[in-house]
Design a protein that fits this description.
Layout: H1 2-7, H2 12-60, H3 68-92, E1 97-98, H4 99-106, H5 110-122, E2 126-131, E3 134-139, H6 141-150
Antiparallel strand pairs: 1-3, 2-3
Length: 155
């Protein structure tokens, strides 16, 4: 150690300033590290609480049947989406509509509109025509009759 002190002359005041400057930095690093550990413990506690809720929910429901309220809500939502798509198609008449335009007008995602449109195509109420500007959807004669029967359009 005496060799280092004899070869490099470092003033004592510089050493005191360096050590004094490093102490606040070390304290901040310790606080950040401790806060990160605390956040990790809180996150794990939250995750385990969610897992416990899911386990109790799974135990309360039968394994082969999902919770009936959720299924009922989803089916109601799908039916209303289908009816809204039909209403929009009926109002537009024979122009045909793009999937994106329907989704924008309903303010829902295109995937939900696509699912509703697929149901309508399966029931032959809507037909799909692919063109240069994209895939447009038109009401079929059966669809027009259904919409007039429901009161969406007037004959």
């Amino acid at each position: 150690m005496s060799f280092l002190i004899e070869t490099v002359a470092i003033p004592v005041w510089l050493l005191i300033i360096l050590i004094g400057g490093m102490i606040p930095l070390a304290m901040k690093l310790y606080k950040v590290f401790r806060r990160d550990k605390q956040e990790e413990k809180e996150r794990q506690a939250r995750d385990s609480e969610i897992i416990m809720k899911l386990k109790t929910l799974r135990k309360s429901a039968e394994p082969s049947q999902p919770v009936p309220d959720v299924d009922r809500e989803k089916s109601k939502e799908k039916k209303t989406d289908i009816l809204h798509v039909l209403m929009i198609m009926a109002v537009e008449g024979d122009k045909g509509m793009l999937l994106r335009a329907i989704a924008d007008r309903m303010e829902i995602s295109t995937s939900k509109v696509q699912q509703a449109m697929q149901k309508l195509i399966d029931k032959e109420l809507v037909e799909e025509v692919t063109g240069v500007s994209g895939t447009k959807y038109y009401l079929t004669e059966v669809g027009k009759h259904y919409c007039s029967k429901k009161g969406f359009i007037e004959d």
